[in-house]
Design a protein that fits this description.
Helix content is 44%, strand content 16%. It is α+β, with helices and mostly antiparallel strands. The strands form four sheets. It has a three-stranded antiparallel beta sheet with strand order 2-1-11.
């Protein structure tokens, strides 16, 4: 009898889902929209988990939950962006064995901040974050190259210089640079690769904004990602063993420094106070 009831339940569920399956088959997955059915709160715990240091203070977790919620809520108006977030989240949960203790703390942070987002000028905004900087965060208009990001202004983050990620050095041989930047260095003669790379100017926080590679010009962020550098705040020097890069910080340097926020939390600051410090032109609101 129990087995019969199980089969009956399975058949009922299949019949209920049949219209959706037929729509997907006949019209493509684009026809099955997720914007209205997706509850952002369900996505947040694992998304916060992906972004946060393992020993994060409760108030840093709460601040991170508010920033992640702001990102997800903005994506609800863009089906493709929402689909990307869902896909990335599913892939992460499938590939990573998550620490249940930390995941529970992330769930608590999401619950404690339910509905809270970052707002600037009456508009829901997406506040950026990074691991640690060079002691000063970047101006949004300079870093993103877009005036609409100008509400994110540069602030001091002095605790960052004490982070273990504050300074790092990388050395690249000519062969390695050709492999990583090949299409831009294909016309460089042997022994001339180092001379084909010229950092341009820096922004007001000291991050490289442009790098000339051969005849091409790459943004500082694009260049550092191509080489796998932790930050675009770097200096270059040619040595006998290759081209040396001395980097400060880890991440793009825009918005909230997680290391600086952690120190503020340890000193007794709340998530709201942390976000107000790193985003002085915004405030925490509710949606």
């Amino acid at each position: 009898m129990k087995e019969f009831l199980k089969y009956l339940l399975a058949a009922g569920l299949l019949l209920l889902s049949l219209p959706v399956l037929l729509t997907a088959v006949c019209s493509g997955r684009e026809a099955v929209t997720l914007e209205k059915e997706t509850d952002p709160e369900m996505l947040l715990p694992s998304m916060v988990y992906r972004e946060i240091p393992r020993e994060a203070h409760r108030e840093l977790l709460r601040a991170q939950a508010i920033l992640v919620r702001s990102r997800v809520c903005r994506s609800l108006k863009e089906p493709e962006a929402l689909a990307d977030l869902l896909r990335e989240n599913v892939e992460y949960e499938q590939q990573v064995l998550m620490d249940e203790s930390l995941l529970r703390r992330c769930r608590e942070a999401v619950s404690d901040t339910q509905g809270q987002v970052l707002i600037s000028g009456g508009t829901l905004v997406e506040g950026s974050w990074f691991v640690c900087g060079n002691g000063k965060t970047r101006n949004g208009a300079e870093a993103a190259g877009q005036e609409e990001c100008g509400w994110m202004v540069s602030v001091d983050s002095p605790a960052d210089v004490e982070s273990p990620d504050y300074l790092s050095e990388f050395v690249f041989s000519e062969e390695e640079l050709r492999e990583l930047l090949g299409e831009y260095l294909e016309h460089a003669a042997p022994g001339e690769v180092f001379q084909q790379i010229f950092p341009g100017g820096t922004d007001s926080a000291g991050y490289v904004t442009e790098v000339s590679v051969g005849t091409a010009r790459l943004s500082g962020e694009n260049f550092r990602k191509r080489l796998g550098l932790p930050s675009s705040c770097f200096t270059m020097q040619e040595g006998e063993d290759g081209l040396h890069f001395l980097c400060q910080g880890k991440g793009h340097g825009l918005g909230m420094s997680q290391y600086g926020a952690e120190r503020m939390a340890q000193e007794g600051k709340t998530a709201e106070e942390i976000l107000k410090y790193y985003f002085p032109n915004a405030q925490v609101g509710t949606v």
